[in-house]
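Contributing new records

If you add data, match the layout below exactly. Sequence lines come first and carry their own label; structure lines follow with theirs. Keep one chain per record. Anything else will be rejected by the validation script.
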Amino acid sequence: MLPTKFTLLRHLTAVAADNAIISQLKQHLQEKLGKYFTVSDIHAAATTSDARLKIKLNLFSAEVSNRAMHTICKTLDIQVQTEDELSTAVGSEEPATKRAKLA
């Protein structure tokens, strides 16, 4: 999602060849893009996780990057906790002979 927004913003930047009406239209579209095309932390986390976009470090600010990393860490912590809870629940239901073989 962030690469799409970045591309749209780049194309909506007024250039010298644009006449007054086109420049005004691009400015209006940029304002609406900022208003309606919101980027959440999960979008930034997805962009950060995409290996194809590692070379495009200028897609978002340092603050958004930090929030993305925090979101990734929080999601991984939840996943690890869930897996630990599942293994604990499964471990308590195993027969004694199987637990002895695993240990």
